[in-house]
Specification:
single chain, 347 residues, alpha+beta, Immunoglobulin-like, 5-stranded mixed sheet, elongated, binds copper (II) ion
Length: 347
C-alpha cells in the first residue's frame, strides 16, 4: 500500500477501520458466550448435587422448620468459575452484566486493532522489501491518511470512554431509600452479617470443615455454616466495616468488591438478578487465616427471604412495627374517647 500515491488505498483503509469499529461493538458476542457456559455449569452442578441433595433437605428441615425458609442446595450455586473456561464467569447483577459487556467490547476492539496492525505489517514486509520493491517511493506526506489515523483512534477512545464512564458512575449510585441494608463486618477470620433494618440481628458466618462441606455436597473452602441471606431483584445497601484489620468483601459472580475497613463504613448498591448461592472470598490479606473466611451470599425470592428473617432472633420486617402499632391503636383511641367522655361528664 503506497499511501502517498494511492488515495484509493487510504479510502479503503478508512472503510476497513469503520468496519472494524462496527464489529467491535456488536453485542451478540456477549450473549453467544453466555449460553454454553451456563449449560455446562448447570450440568456440572446437577451432577455433584444428585447425591447430597437429601442431606441438604434434612438440614433444611432442622433449620427452617415450618417457617417456609429452606436453604438452597448445591444445584443453586451460580456464577462460579469452572475448569476449562477462558472468560469471566457469568454475571448475576446489573452492574456485572454491564461490566462484562464492556469487558467483551473492549476485548474485541483490541483484537481488531491487533489484527489490523498485523496485516499492515505483513503487507509492508511482503510488498515493500528490497527485492519486491527495488525503487521505493519518496513520499513524505499525505493529508488524508494523516487525518484518518488521528481521528479514528480518537473516535475509538471516545467510544470506549462513554460506556466506561457511565459504568463507573453507576457503581457510585446511592441505594434507594427502600433498599434492604446488610452490614457486612469482617473479623479475623470470619464474616458477620447484620441487618439493622430488620431487628439488627447478626449472622456469624464460619467456614465449614472439609467433612461438613462434603456431607452437604458443597465446595470446601467456600461453603459456610450460615450464609448472608438477601432478597433477589431488590436493591441491597451493602455496608462494609471491620472489627480488627482491613478485609475485603468480594463476590466475583456479582461483580462486587468493597473493602471492609475498621472504624469506617463503605457502602455500595447491589441488585442480584436470580435466586442462588454466590460464593466469594476475603480479598485483602488480613492475617494467617485470610484464605479461610469465604463469603456465601444466598439470594432468595422476597417472600422466602422474609420467612428467613422471621427465623432469626429478633428478626422483623419493615411493616411489623406499624402493624403492631395499628393493632394497638384502636384500643388507645377507645381509651382516649372514654377519658374525653369522663371529662365531659365531670364538667
Ligand atoms: Cu479477611
Amino acid at each position: 500500500m503506497i499511501f502517498g500515491k494511492s488515495p484509493v488505498g487510504a479510502k479503503r483503509l478508512a472503510t476497513t477501520l469503520w468496519a472494524a469499529l462496527l464489529l467491535a461493538f456488536a453485542p451478540q458476542a456477549v450473549s453467544a458466550q453466555d449460553a454454553p457456559v451456563e449449560a455446562t455449569e448447570v450440568a456440572a452442578a446437577t451432577e455433584s448435587a444428585a447425591a447430597p441433595a437429601a442431606v441438604e433437605t434434612d438440614a433444611a428441615t432442622v433449620e427452617g422448620g415450618e417457617s417456609g425458609y429452606t436453604p438452597l442446595g448445591p444445584e443453586d450455586i451460580k456464577g462460579q468459575p469452572l475448569p476449562g473456561e477462558w472468560n469471566v464467569q457469568p454475571q448475576y447483577s446489573d452492574i456485572g452484566e454491564q461490566a462484562f459487556a464492556l469487558h467483551t467490547g473492549i476485548f474485541w476492539v483490541m483484537v481488531v486493532i491487533s489484527v489490523f496492525v498485523l496485516v499492515l505489517l505483513a503487507i509492508v514486509i511482503l510488498r515493500f522489501n528490497k527485492r519486491a520493491n527495488p525503487t521505493p517511493s519518496k513520499t513524505t506526506h499525505n493529508t488524508m491518511i494523516e487525518v484518518v489515523w488521528t481521528v479514528v483512534p480518537v473516535l475509538i477512545l471516545v467510544g470506549i470512554a462513554i460506556p466506561s464512564i457511565s459504568l463507573l458512575a453507576k457503581q457510585y449510585e446511592s441505594p434507594p431509600e427502600d433498599a434492604v441494608t446488610v452490614k457486612v463486618i469482617g473479623y479475623q477470620w470470619y464474616w458477620g452479617y447484620a441487618y439493622p433494618d430488620n431487628g439488627d440481628f447478626e449472622v456469624v458466618s464460619n467456614m465449614l470443615s472439609k467433612e461438613e462441606a462434603d456431607a452437604k455436597g458443597l465446595p470446601h473452602q467456600l461453603a459456610v455454616d450460615k450464609r448472608m441471606v438477601v432478597p433477589v431483584n431488590t436493591p441491597l445497601r451493602i455496608q462494609t466495616t471491620s472489627a480488627d484489620v482491613i478485609h475485603s468483601f468480594a463476590v466475583p459472580g456479582l461483580w462486587f468488591k468493597l473493602d471492609a475497613v475498621p472504624g469506617r463504613i463503605n457502602e455500595k448498591l447491589l441488585t442480584i438478578k436470580e435466586p442462588g448461592i454466590y460464593y466469594g472470598q476475603c480479598s485483602e490479606l488480613c492475617g494467617i487465616k485470610h484464605g479461610y473466611m469465604p463469603i456465601a451470599v444466598e439470594a432468595l425470592p422476597r417472600d422466602k427471604w422474609e420467612a428467613w428473617v422471621r427465623t432469626q432472633p429478633g428478626g422483623k420486617l419493615k411493616g411489623d412495627d406499624e402493624a403492631a402499632a395499628a393493632a394497638a391503636a384502636p384500643e388507645a383511641a377507645e381509651g382516649e374517647a372514654e377519658a374525653a367522655h369522663a371529662e365531659a361528664a365531670a364538667e
